[in-house]
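Teaching note: in complex prediction, the entire set of molecules is handled at once rather than each chain in isolation. The prompt given to students was simply: 'Predict the structure of this complex.' The entities are:
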Amino acid sequence: MTFLLIYLAILAAALLSVPFLKVMAKGLVTVAAVISCALLSSYLAGNVLVGSEFEIIMPGTLVTGEVPIRIDALSAWFILVINFTMITGALYGLQYMKVYREQSANLSLHCIAYLLAQSMLIIICSVQNSLVFLFAWEIMAVSAFLLVIFEHQKPETLKAGINYLIQSHVSIVLLTVGFIWVAYRMDSYDFKAIGEFSAAFGGVNSFVLFGCFFVGFSLKAGFVPFHTWLPYAHPAAPSHVSGIMSGVLIKIGIYGILRMILLVKTDFTVLGYFILFVAVVSGVYGVMLAILQHNLKKLLAYHSIENIGIIGIGIGLGTIGIGMNNSLLTTLGFAGALLHTLNHSLFKSLLFFSAGNVYQATHSMNIESFGGLIKKMPHTAGLFLVASLAICGLPPFNGFVSEFLIYAGLYNGLGNSAPTLVLAIVASLFGLALIGGLALLCFTKAFGVVFLGTPRPCHPPQAELPAEANAATLVPMYAIVALMLAIGLFPGIFLEALSAPLAAFQAKMPGAENVAALPENVRQIATSIGWCAAGFLALAGLVIFIQQKLAKEKPLAIAPTWGCGYVGDASRMQYTAGSFVRSYRKLAEPLFSIHKKKRPVEGIFPTDGWQETHPYDKAEAWLIDLPLRKLKHFIGKFQFLQNGNPQFYVLYGVVFIVLVILIPVVMGSIGLLLKFLNQL
Amino acid sequence: MISLAMILFASLIFTGVVVRTKSLASGRKGPGILQPLKDVLRLLRKGTVFSETTSFIFQIASSIYFVSVLMAILVVPFGQSKGLISFDGDFVFFAYVLALGKFFSIISAMDTGSSFEGMGASREALYSMLAEPAFFVLMGSFAMLTGHTSFHGIFTALHFSSHVSYALGVLATFVLIMVAMIENSRMPIDDPKTHLELTMIHEVMILDNSGFGLGLFTYAVNLKFAMYGAIIANFFIGDVPWYYAVLVFTAVQVLFAVIVGLLESFTARFRMAHNATFIFTLTSASLLIFFGVLLLMGKFI
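The expected output is the structure of the full assembly:
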């Protein structure tokens, strides 16, 4: 209880003081509040992971009923994930926002929204009363909206923000429907009622209920086809906000799905297949579109969809494991999913922060206008490289560990006798392998074109040369790298921390009381991976050392890149991002709608030629644009009502009031009449 | 340990045998078996030229590529004896550590800022992406057949019993040979001996490498061939004493090298645009293996 009070006191003090402080102090107070709130909640969460659950029942109000604050292992894991990225995001944001220090009022709003977003995320993880949950969800959605539209003077930013706001409210509607359905039947807003509901009402009811929640949470998490807000909101937001949105905000959707899996009782096998299907589609579709993007942050946003897909594959596998009473499958699936949640929050925030550094140095996000940045910004380039390796799931970094666990789960599931499962797993294996390969293609493109080679001619030309970000910006980024390496080298420790949340999922299976949440062979695998990663690093270090040593003794020459006889400036002849993925684009073209515009170089005296490609998401065209057009068309028919004539508006008011008064009277008379007729 | 020694040994002569086969097939006497090895040693002793466009990525890429192949080799078993690294799911590590090497070779090509090398990098990234699912589905099929999820477990438990299983072995060998050809950028995907940069993949990526770095890249190709040869050999070694195993292993490696030589002598390189289709066919071949396994296990109706 004291914790809660201290937490609220810090939050309130920060929220109230921020608007009245000087610009620099605003930032510092916000960071201090974020860190202290994070430490407080992490302390509680850490205790929970070690073993002692935290539960307080608040008296609540007449409307909400009792408000239980329960931090179980699952919440604790997510609270820790959220806090780490919120802290690094705040530290990075403190430096990033320096450019905007003139906009004092705007910054106040930004700081307040950041603080609220953090606290609401933590509250969502810990409160188990559906009404309070919805309140927190709403505040979180709105504060995220405020964070996104920091540069609201730009029309496209505002548009992206409103797009996000509308979609997150669709999600809220679905969640509300789900919660009210349960509350109507069970007369309680406690989450436990959801479990009782699905125990009391048959499989179909629970399934539909879960579907309702799943779609609601998917809108936040970004599963295809509910992903369309992500590629707009991420590029529009300031980089630290993109980092925390992609890192933790969309993960709250994953938390919601996992929480519902823990609560409902239904046919988990079917549920697992459903999640697996959606997840594989999301993963492959996300990365396939990511490759085609020319905007660096939009590319990263599509990768979030891919990674949510990978997390989803883990969740699907684990759920199938529960359904089939296969404890190893459950462990590997959920362990992979939960660890990938952490991993993705780390490398994705790092990628967005690096993209932010690039943006502040060049004022551009167009991949085609970069080149050779590694010479000007070696730290940023190195950090981006590490994060790229991790997001491709390559050893020795953290992405490999979680993808490996999911692979292990998939291969383990192949031993099962059910033919449907085997087919589903081979499809997922195919998908996951393809995702890996596509991610490699995408990040060699992104890293290669942005940081390597020579600078490309850009439009408009740069006034000043790009420079490395300052040290204070780099510190939180290196902190993320340290944690990433720690996970890659010592996965055992992190799996140990996961054993408590995993036990909760194991408990869903009948007769699982005496099964260890983390079997010995999984532990061994984790240790082996750690050793392999360390061995790789040591061996690579050794060979590089030998190479450097030998190079010192030998003659070393510096010469221009071999140009096949051409000795002029070759920077315009470099491979561009568009040409790097051209063969892929040709292959994938039938799946996407790619708008091309070009003027070919032709004629005897050719003028300049150019070509533009604009990849567009077919899912968005069918699911968002088309219904929107129809809706506009339909509503347009009533446009005559809004004719701009005040007299008419007064008339509408009068008509409304008359109707409001008349309808009850008329209804009453009809009732009387019916009664009279009945008596006859 | 024995597998590492055997693969290292095979890597010394592999390319030599390939080159010898090719020269015999074209009616020449050809260089000695050890000539490619001597070339590598010569390269390792030489000084280096770095392009002024390149950064530290270019300098470390060759080493990381080499080490990634070495790490992958440590996973490969030899008959009944495990590789130095062996755990459940080790072939996932195998594939991913190779992918790490590939990542670095691709970005080192991009680092030179050359239009040719970018072309090679783009092709390498695309083709290895397309080949990835074939390997995973292949290993999945054998994992399902044997109930084990490590290289060593799969190979020790694998017994050819019926006609279908022989067919599977042949198909798997085909898929693995083709994966090896793609990984090493050989015919019919890529022609290492072509003289036009526009038609190369691997060779064009290392245009700017020289000295020690080029030596590492070149030797890594030998290692990779020997590594895939070892995996193919493991399919056929089965449960025999070590001296027979060594014989089978050597025979398979030599046969593999001869096949590569013959393929390069008598096939033409595909048009680049057709490569993608061809590589994706491998995935269907590995799906065929998968359905064959389902048939064997009686899970298919």
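Point out the following to students. The longest strand of chain B covers residues 48-51. Chain B touches chain A through 85 residues (CB under 8 Å).
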